[in-house]
Design goal:
This protein has 206 residues and is of the alpha+beta class. About 11% of the residues have low confidence. 27% of the residues lie in helices and 26% in strands. The radius of gyration is 18 Å and the shape is globular. The longest helix has 14 residues.
Length: 206
């Protein structure tokens, strides 16, 4: 597994709606000697072996490697979805021991709620922020739908959307709670090349 620091993003902010609308600015992450293994029917598979990595504020970092080399496992550990066998993960200097709203994940599949429309999906994560009024939550959701170019589809049902549009909804939903870190596990791998490149460009601009 290789690490490439593809793009350095500036940490700018917007104030058009509220402080919650600040552009994503990842916090510093420290991965220290992280190891993880899995038991299988044929033995033990060592997915990660003392992996260490430092991620600075505002960096866009890519993990590159063959299938099965541990990329998804490392992302799950950073997200708090799995625990390492050894080593530590620190976010803003604090140990990661469980999932948190400051570290959100975009998976390979959109993982949207089919019983909610586009607006409802983006709004969902914001309902967990008690400091926001209902109006502010709606304003934030509308802002991110506009940011990903889906304002005209806010009342559309999920089954009416193309694959690229579903991933745009997923991106808006992930950004809306203003996470400090956005983890992406090849969310655009199943899309056609043109749509994939367009979404990568959208993320770089955001």
């Amino acid at each position: 597994m290789f690490v490439t620091r593809a793009i350095r993003l500036g940490s700018k902010a917007t104030s058009s709606v509220s402080e919650e609308l600040r552009v994503i600015a990842p916090s510093k992450l420290a991965i220290e000697d992280v190891s993880k293994s899995f038991k299988t029917g044929t033995g033990v598979v060592q997915a990660l072996d003392r992996v260490s990595l430092q991620v600075g504020e505002g960096e866009f970092v890519c993990l590159v490697g063959a299938s099965g080399c541990g990329k998804s496992t490392l992302l799950n550990i950073i997200a708090g979805l799995e625990k390492p066998d050894g080593g530590n993960v620190l976010a803003d200097g604090k140990p990661v021991t469980s999932p948190g709203r400051e570290r959100l994940v975009m998976f390979q599949e959109p993982a949207l709620f089919p019983w909610l429309d586009v607006f409802g999906n983006v709004l969902f994560g914001l309902k967990l922020k008690p400091n926001l009024s209902k109006k502010n939550r709606h304003d934030v959701a509308k802002y991110y739908l506009e940011l990903v170019g889906l304002s005209r589809f806010e009342h559309a049902n999920i089954h009416e959307l193309s694959g690229g549009m579903k991933q745009r909804v997923s991106l808006a939903r992930a950004l809306a709670p203003n996470p400090r870190v956005l983890l992406m596990d090849e969310p655009f791998a199943a899309l056609d090349a043109l749509t994939r490149e367009q979404l990568y460009g959208d993320i770089q601009q955001i």
